[in-house]
Amino acid sequence: MEGERQTVKYKTKVNRDDKLPPAMNEHNWHHPLPLYQNSYIREAIESQFKATPIRVRLTRIAAGKFLTPHIDYDPTYAVRVIVPIQGTDGVINKLWRKNVEESYEMPATGQSYFLNTGLKHAVEHHGTEDRIALMFSLPNQQDIQDLEYLES
Hints:
Layout (H helix, E strand, L loop, with lengths): L1 H10 L22 H4 L2 H7 L7 E8 L4 E5 L8 E8 L4 E7 L2 E5 L8 E3 L4 E6 L5 E8 L14
Antiparallel strand pairs: 1-8, 2-7, 3-6, 3-8, 4-5, 4-7
């Protein structure tokens, strides 16, 4: 099964750091650009997390676009954090936990969301305004050790 091979491939990414092309290894993205170094954004992020964020970026999903279902890597490699900034009306985030599809929203209310990118996930943007989000990864799990999964 193709999906199973992909899952195994990404779930073992943490064990393949030395074999990954350098640009694909998020752990190499820990040198902040000058624009970010003394910024309010850096201060705001780093004051709230124990781990030093890596691969900090703004992302945009244009209105009417979709991110197809995919798996990135599980939290043993890195922890993905998303902070929606604008354009979240009509955005449906999907996650497949144990092959059961779940749909949820991440409104732009100032909250940050942890996304388990080791599960299949996708985004459907049915809104009219581009979604902008601050997205970054944490290189370890120390910030999520005490989180609990709550049924919605």
